[in-house]
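Reopening this one. Same input as before:
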Amino acid sequence: MNTAEKLQELGFGLIAKQVAAKDAMNSKVHIAYNNYEFITHKEYLDFNRDLRKRTEIKDKYESTFDALILTNITNYPELPPAHVLSSLQIAKDRNCFDTFEIAKIESIKEVIDPILFGRINGCSDMFFIDQWDNDVKFEDIKQTVKSIDDLK
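Same output, byte for byte:
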């Protein structure tokens, strides 16, 4: 009888479930570490930070850069090659992973929007609260609208 079962038998239901869950996770981790190479979360973040530094193109209004994006296989829109499907089947048979994700480098376009507006439900106007950075400015928006009105 393992510890979780003994705790359950003694009436410690909540802690028994926690111990059983931890034991199951430890077993999965042991199988995974013994069968697969891995990266840490820090390595993933460091890779993305370096990739962004190497690929970022920034102007006044937007930033475009590459990033390693993770997509759950249930949402992945393409068919992997046969050897990947075979490897996936082996991994599933080992029963040590809860989910599977596809890592793919994608180009990200980030629109820089450093203006804070207040909104009121039912009112379409946007109320300027504050701004930061040197990107788009509230004054730029107002000036563009004034210039368009002057052309009419």
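So the earlier flakiness isn't reproducible anymore. For the record, Residues 115-151 form one domain.
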